[in-house]
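Handout, section 3.2

Students often ask what a structure token actually looks like in practice. Rather than define it abstractly, here is a full record for Amidohydrolase. The first block is the sequence as you would receive it.
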Amino acid sequence: MRVALVQLVSTTDSATNRAEIAGQLAALTPSDGLDLVVLPEGAMHDFGAPDLDLAPVAEPLDGPFVQLLTAEAQRLQTTFIAGMFEQTDGLPFNTLVVVDGDGLRATYRKIHLYDSFGYRESDRLSPGAIEPVVVEIAGRPVGLMTCYDLRFPEHARALVDAGAELLVVPAAWVAGEHKLHHWRTLLTARAIENTVHVVAAAQGGDRYTGHSAAIDPWGSIVVEAEDAPAILQAVLAANDVAHAREVNPSLANRRIRS
């Protein structure tokens, strides 16, 4: 599987963000042979100030953001996973959309809202249903997580128990003391303990940590960005997972199961 991770810096203007995304994606062509392109959490619209009401800017699942992804998926002959705020009758969902050239394939609504480090995401957004979401992309079972979900190992394990061999983690990982260390460590831990690939597309810039990355099932960094906008590409071989699980059968050796 060939994956592209798009690190960007979203604003609180959705039309500007769509233009910026289209501009960055122009660097990709069908000849890249991409199976999956991942954009960060909040790619449609930044979180903004802690008191910014996100309901008025949230979009339906057939709105302009998903329309852009569908057009780009058609052009690149690939599948996108990206973060948006999904319109509801009340507080929006923080939603990942899975989009190919035919349109919306699946959604994952963030389960663990970021009520931590003095921030309260739950004041502005609704949590999703507590159920793992795994989708097949290019013949690989892909589990979906968003940002703060990464801090909950039981979430990743539930995805793996549902068949995931690759975890995709779009994020807007807020910068701060210890935060880059936590980001790298948790991405690596989720890969090692589950013997899976982990790919994470993050928001960059001054407010967020950046450092989008792809991690292999041994916990080695395949590719990693800094904090500026960037597009990374990585090839993730399915037999890497099979080999890691043969050498390190920790999943099979579990004696405590939920």
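Discussion prompt for tutorial groups: The first strand starts at residue 2 and ends at 7. How would you have guessed this from the sequence alone?
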